[in-house]
Amino acid sequence: VCDGTGKEFTDIIYEKSVGEGIAKITINRPERRNAFRPHTIKELIRAFDDARDDSTVGVIILTGKGTKAFCSGGDQALRSSDGYADFESFGRLNVLDLQVQIRRLPKPVIAMVAGYAVGGGHVLHMVCDLTVAADNAVFGQTGAKVGSFDAGYGSSIMSRLVGPKKAREMWFLSRFYNAYEAEKMGLVNVVVPLEKLEMETLKWCREILRNSPTAIRVLKSALNAVDDGHAGLQELGGNATLIFYGTKEANEGKTAYMERRRPDFSKFPRRP
Ligand code: 2NE
Question: Ligand 1 centre and the CA of 32: distance in Å?
Fold first, then answer.
């Protein structure tokens, strides 16, 4: 459980199942219902970076320690006039960077939710590709109650998931919804008994891992492309380039350049 720099994580647990292709990242602040501080987010970003770069990893699980909470959002005790501040004299909203990282990560990220997924913790589960919920899960946005909001992905992705009316209800009323209500609203993929949560999540991981990694990579970027605008197209376009580089046609261009000759693309078809 190291971060690759030899330092142990304090706010998260990072595990990889050797030979299976699954990485599991657990927010480890159960005494605060897994509320995050800037340091927690920095560790999460490092772990997600590692899971992205590790070609043996095909699926990533994001979860919270214990059964009481997935994540209760930003640690309100550390909220300052310019974000959340822990060991620094200025505040940060670095959870927004983490949201973008999860969204652009070319591998599926599954939120495994037991207990509360509220506030910024609710947004984190929404930016994950899939959500497997325990029957004790509770979902909601508390922003309007505690004087906060997420006007980025927290609003736009929610509106896509549950529709514009329900999204307004969630944000304006700050209600909590149980797992079955969340499933009905389209917020989660499946609800299972708490004791089966991990087993069911692993089953979903293994089903994904049986499938083509490139197909999944392109599909993830395609499913996000319209909503993510230029950044979404760039992600999708990057995948086209990645695949094109593996063709003889692309290789002819590079080889010709290296051999200081004119490229000969005449043998490559101009497909209808
Ligand atoms: C999560 C919830 C509903 C759980 O309730 P319950 O009754 O199960 O537990 P309790 O007693 O409220 O919490 C246990 C301990 O965890 C702390 C509590 O203060 C308590 O501490 P002690 O009294 O034992 O010392 N705790 C829980 N959540 C915390 C938090 N977020 N920050 C700091 N301490 C927290 C209930 O605890 C709850 O409603 N929590 C607050 C949820 C919330 O409003 N989150 C912030 C939303 S804003 C946000 O996340 C955000 C954003 O809007 C935009 C950008 C970035 C972040």
Answer: 7
Q: How far apart are alpha carbons 243 and 106 in whole angstroms?
A: 14
Question: What is the position in ligand 1's atom list of the atom closest to the CA of 146?
Answer: 44
Q: What backbone torsions phi and psi does residue 192 show, to the nearest 5 degrees? A: -135, 160
Ligand 1 atom closest to residue 76's alpha carbon, by position in its atom list: 32
The residues lining ligand 1, judged by C-beta closer than 6 Å to any ligand atom, are 32-33, 35, 68-69, 72-77, 93, 95, 116, 118-120, 142-143, 146, 148-150
Beta pairing, strands 83-84 & 12-17: unpaired
| Sites in the chain below the pLDDT cut of 70 | 1-7
CA distance 167 to 74: 20
Is 135:260 a contact under the CB 8 Å cutoff?
no
The residue written with tokens 């693309």 in the block is 265
ipTM value of the model? 0.98
- DSSP 3-state assignment of 87? coil
Residues in the chain: 272
What does the alpha-carbon distance between residue 105 and residue 224 come to, in Å, rounded to a whole number? 11
Q: Which of 95, 104, 87 is nearest to 34 (CA)?
A: 95
Task: Return the DSSP state at 56.
Answer: T
Please report the pLDDT score of residue 149 as a whole number.
97
Nearest to 197, CA basis, from 105, 28, 17, 66: 66
